[in-house]
Design brief:
Blueprint lengths: L4 E5 L5 H10 L3 E5 L3 H8 L10 H10 L3 E4 L7 E4 L5 E3 L11 E3 L2 H10 L8 E4 L7 H10 L11 E4 L9 H7 L2 E5 L2 H11 L7 E5 H32 L3 H8 L23 H7 L5 H25 L6 E5 L14 H11 L3 E5 L16 H5 L4 E4 L4 H4 L3 H7 L4 E4 L6 H6 L3 E4 L10
Parallel strand pairs: 1-2, 1-4, 2-3, 4-7, 7-8, 9-10, 11-12, 11-13, 13-14, 14-15
Antiparallel strand pairs: 5-6, 8-9
The structure holds ligand SAJ.
Length: 438
């Protein structure tokens, strides 16, 4: 079968780059979103997210006439669902007061319902949104079959996880291997043919539920690996060890690759996807649940570092550097850095945050438009995100910009000796010793 026209539902971090990439590879694309602000921004030739190179690709796609933006779907050869599957904290008390999160599948449900009037014999529908195992067959399939058409026989239905890394989306979209899971082998084949439009990596066909599980397994493994690194940081602090040195040495082992501790795990993927397993099968996922809890508690460990450095936090002026969920992106979703700032504010500290990628920041968090302003009258500097700009800070120049003489590094970005030589006292996350002789 050949695909000439595709409708992409959801123009966020995944949908927009995917829609534009299909368009720049010759496909006629209708990009659909329910958010008026997103539609207006895109219609004005602008984009609502920060992703290197994306603006150029979207503009090229719109200018060529291949990408049009709309508030509702229209008839097409294929439909791709890339809407959010957010989480909410379960407050029913069913989990004995333990933090427990549940998936909100309403956007996937409405997207599937929006496709129903346009579904024809031979149409392909692909779900890309990260979803609990069996969503394609148990949630999406019955909605689409309301048409009287049968999935796998009359139309094709598949699940294909996106695996791109924010900051490198456009390149990874094309180069990464793609898994396509069909409700039948024919559906998988149709999906593989669609993605062959631009994917240069290997395209592997499987069944829909396996494809769903693969995605969640990938991000869950990463979450657990970061949790153990965070736990090592706590242990190193207790035992008078420098965790960064210990990790470097352990990683010399040819089969060990310990990740980096930090202020916690954020973003809309790793910090939420493991919940899809926990929610679906709590009896089978105690390790996954515990790793989530360890990573969610990590901002409290940062608080203990700040308390160690400053004693009482009341009225202390702290310059907090970085609010994004990870280095060199503007995404503040589920950011542990923002959580640390909230905890500091709650403890009575006078925090001023500087986030170079998003100076308008977050409600309730006092922000400064420049680094200089954040540093000016500070008592202490707290580094929360390993942005390249912060890694390059020269301590001997920083002395002139601030009254602070205490710095706290939670991401191992700064060379302790250089800061000490410049007259700062430095505290580092996961470092329970102050000199080699400790
Ligand atoms: N982090 C650490 N220590 C580390 C690595 C990361 O604390 O050693 C933190 C980061 O600071 C951040 C969080 O973990 O807060 C997640 O960052 P990340 O770079 O690990 O992942 P994401 O969420 O930006 O992207 C991930 C990727 N998945 C994997 O690497 C397995 C990406 O390929 C997926 O497409 C994406 O999730 C997604 O959409 O699911």
């Amino acid at each position: 079968m050949s695909f000439k026209k595709i409708c992409v539902l959801g123009l966020g971090y995944i949908g927009l780059p995917t829609a534009s990439t299909f368009a720049t590879h010759g496909m006629e694309v209708v990009g659909v979103d329910v958010n008026r602000r997103v539609l207006d921004t895109l219609s004005n030739g602008e984009i609502h997210i920060h992703e290197p190179g994306l603006s150029t690709v979207v503009q090229a796609a719109v200018k060529s006439g291949k990408l049009t933006i709309s508030e509702k779907p229209e008839e097409a050869d294929a439909f791709l669902i890339a809407v959010p599957t957010p989480f909410y904290l379960d407050k029913t008390g069913e989990h004995n007061g333990e933090p427990y999160k549940l998936a909100d599948m309403r956007a996937v449900t409405s997207a599937a319902e929006a496709i129903v009037p346009y579904l024809r014999k031979g149409t392909l529908v692909v779900l890309e949104s990260t979803s609990p195992p069996r969503t394609t067959v148990e949630l999406v399939k019955p909605i689409l079959e309301q048409t009287g058409l049968e999935a796998g026989t009359d139309f094709h239905l598949a699940y294909s996880p996106e695996r791109v890394l924010p900051g490198q989306i456009l390149r990874e979209l094309i180069e990464n291997a793609r898994v396509i899971g069909g409700v039948t082998p024919e559906s998988a084949r149709a999906g593989a043919e669609l993605y062959a439009t631009f994917v240069k990596g290997e395209i592997i066909q499987t069944d829909a539920t396996t494809a769903e599980m693969v995605k969640i397994m990938e991000n869950t493994t990463r979450d657990i690996n970061i949790a153990i690194a965070n736990e090592f940081a706590r242990l190193a602090d207790r035992f008078g060890v420098d965790v960064w040195e210990a990790i470097k040495l352990a990683n010399l082992h040819p089969r060990i690759n310990i990740l980096s501790p930090g202020p916690g795990v954020g973003g809309h993927c790793i910090s939420v996807d493991p919940w899809f397993f926990v929610e679906a099968a709590p009896d089978l996922s105690p390790l996954i649940y515990t790793a989530r809890k360890v990573n969610d508690e990590q901002p409290h460990f940062v608080m203990s570092l700040v308390q160690k450095a400053l004693g009482s936090l009341k009225g202390k002026k702290i310059a907090a550097l970085g609010l994004a969920y990870k280095p060199d992106v503007d995404d503040l979703r589920e950011s542990p850095a923002a959580e640390v700032v909230r905890l500091l504010l709650d403890a009575g500290a006078n925090v001023r945050s500087y986030e170079p990628f998003k100076t308008d920041g977050l409600p309730g968090i006092p922000m400064t438009p420049t680094l200089e302003e954040a540093l000016k009258d500070a008592d202490a500097i707290l580094l929360l995100v390993r942005h390249s700009q912060f890694c390059k800070m020269n301590p001997s120049k920083v002395t002139a910009l601030t009254s602070a003489r205490v710095v706290m590094d939670t991401v191992n970005a700064w060379d302790a000796a250089s800061w000490q030589e410049a007259g700062f006292q430095i505290f580092r996350l996961g470092v329970g010793k102050f000199s080699i002789s400790d």
